[in-house]
Amino acid sequence: MRQCGIHDVFHSSYLRIHLPNDNRLFPGRLDNQVAEFKEEEQEWAVDRILSHKGTRSDAVFEVRWKSGDVTWLPYDQVDHLAMLQEYFDVLDIEHVSELTEGNGLPPTDNPQVFLGHLGLGLDYITPTSPSNSSTTPQLQCSSQRQPSTMSNPNPAPLFRTLGNGRFAMPDRYRPGVTLLLTLDQIKLYLQHDADLRGGIEPTTIPSPISYDELAVALNSNAENGIQVALVLEDNTGVHIKGRLPTLAELVGLDATRRVVTTQRDPREEAGGKWLDSRCTELMDEALWDNLDRLHKQRKWREKGVAERQAKRQHQEDEEAFRPFAPSRTTNHAVAGPSNTTHSRAPSPFLNNPVPPPPDSSAPKQPAPPNDEDAEMMDGEATEAAKEAACAKAKGHIPKK
């Protein structure tokens, strides 16, 4: 402890847990690395590749060094090792494009497994002022490409989204030139790249238009070991360097999610429910039949009310134009002397010992006036009316 600079009077609470550094990633800290010794075995030479996790160029490999330590490295850091080809021979494959999912289990709680390889990526942003740059360099760990445990190796897509399924990427070899592509074109280019990596001869498959131009521009912009295959001149072969890019690394994860537009039923916005065609037809028939029946009932009721009102009005009008009839009931008392000078005719009911029973039938309509009444002068009619009124007041029946 004294050699480490810790005095014995210090309390043990000052001690911290010692985490050994990865001397392969941070060399030059051991005595045997400072001085060179003869017949010394290279400490950081690869012994063999034990297993892998992932598929194709996205896989990480479990490497055991001759010093005895075991680490996990991505494909772009072990693609030059002869041990990788021996590992492929054991798996009975010839190229990394044939590599399937491995059964290796890299530790997820040890960050040193994925440290030590930094790449400079370009994040395209829209400038807010003329003085701002359109690109911002960003350091990121390119070895964090484990598909199952680590995040997206390239959080900033290489292509800049323009909207409506269009993407742009500048060409470094031609200043001022920007490539404009659609999502379907990018998928077509990636599929052609995968076919070339799979060992298919370039002359046996059709090549998408401007694939070479895209490959040069993409390889000049891409980092983190992302490269697409290039067909050599005169179709003499295929130049493959780096791993196959994914669609999410080029355009972003959000751009790969197609938005499916569904037509909304106007009845749904009004709070309606979805019904099949049969239920809709039955409901329409029941609704319209019920409304039609109610409409007819209302019309019949209004017609009946109107007819009764018209009949009542007609009766009232006839009653208003009908002349009054004389009353058929008489007074049986003998009339006394009166001041009138006119003689009274005897009552026809005085000779009858028993008065006739009252007539309960409806009063008869008065007879229409005869010709004599029509010829009556106005003066005689007025005098007769006066005599009738006086006789009625005295209980006598005037003489006709």
From TrEMBL:
<feature type="compositionally biased region" description="Basic and acidic residues">
    <location>
        <begin position="305"/>
        <end position="315"/>
    </location>
</feature>
<feature type="compositionally biased region" description="Low complexity">
    <location>
        <begin position="126"/>
        <end position="137"/>
    </location>
</feature>
<feature type="compositionally biased region" description="Polar residues">
    <location>
        <begin position="327"/>
        <end position="344"/>
    </location>
</feature>
<feature type="compositionally biased region" description="Polar residues">
    <location>
        <begin position="138"/>
        <end position="153"/>
    </location>
</feature>
<feature type="region of interest" description="Disordered">
    <location>
        <begin position="305"/>
        <end position="400"/>
    </location>
</feature>
<feature type="compositionally biased region" description="Acidic residues">
    <location>
        <begin position="370"/>
        <end position="381"/>
    </location>
</feature>
<feature type="region of interest" description="Disordered">
    <location>
        <begin position="126"/>
        <end position="154"/>
    </location>
</feature>
<dbReference type="InterPro" id="IPR000953">
    <property type="entry name" value="Chromo/chromo_shadow_dom"/>
</dbReference>
<protein>
    <recommendedName>
        <fullName>Chromo domain-containing protein</fullName>
    </recommendedName>
</protein>
<dbReference type="GO" id="GO:0006338">
    <property type="term" value="P:chromatin remodeling"/>
</dbReference>
<feature type="domain" description="Chromo">
    <location>
        <begin position="43"/>
        <end position="92"/>
    </location>
</feature>
<feature type="compositionally biased region" description="Pro residues">
    <location>
        <begin position="353"/>
        <end position="369"/>
    </location>
</feature>
<dbReference type="InterPro" id="IPR016197">
    <property type="entry name" value="Chromo-like_dom_sf"/>
</dbReference>
